[in-house]
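Raw record, unedited: GAF and ANTAR domain-containing protein
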Amino acid sequence: MTGVPMGAELNPGPSEFAELTTAFGELAGLIVPPGGTLTPSRLVNAAQRAAPNVEGAALTVLPPRSRPRSIAATGALPRRADELQYSIGEGPCLDAAEGDDLVRVDDLAADPRWPAFATAVVAELGVRSIISVRLRLESDLRAALNLYATVPGALTDVDRVNAAIFGSFVALALDAERAREEASNLQLALQTNRQIGIAIGILMGRDLITAEHAFRELREVSQATNRKLRDVAREVIETGELPHAPDQRPG
């Protein structure tokens, strides 16, 4: 079997869809408590609670030029199952994150796609059924939501629908976190530039030097003391004096 496009061959019956709808209705108030924030971790936990056959859920992320890692997991089983895939270099969560929309495993012991991973995870954890769904993100980060069970054939078409729906929400939460992080970094950069500008002004006025000369002094002290430039600038603002390295003395 290969990766299955999301939405293909989904045939849950009306009663199963009704149960799924009820589950999502009950979970709506649990995922985000009053005043809370929709986070990937809460959604991963909710994805497991929404499907009684799922014994563990985890979230794989593949940063550019970096090793894959799990940023959320509902317990030791899904976290270890993820880690085995990372260390061995194969598995459904990696296939899903790297391109397949949805990867479903009905019995890992009889599936030939990942022989090394299958042998290891069945022997160590008893995992037999897996669903991994790719998250569609705005950033260059790649990710997959992974559902695990120890019973062969335990994860049904309803679980596939559940994984696809929760995967969409997890993707939104990851994009939101990235946007908040970028906004925070921008605010920090603006604050740092403002502090450096004030410190340069203080040194210019005190020593009657140019802005270029003042900035060079700040940078030299930063390098000599192994401190961040913004920290040196903050000390200049607070004391009116340029810090000196331990082996330096004021002229």
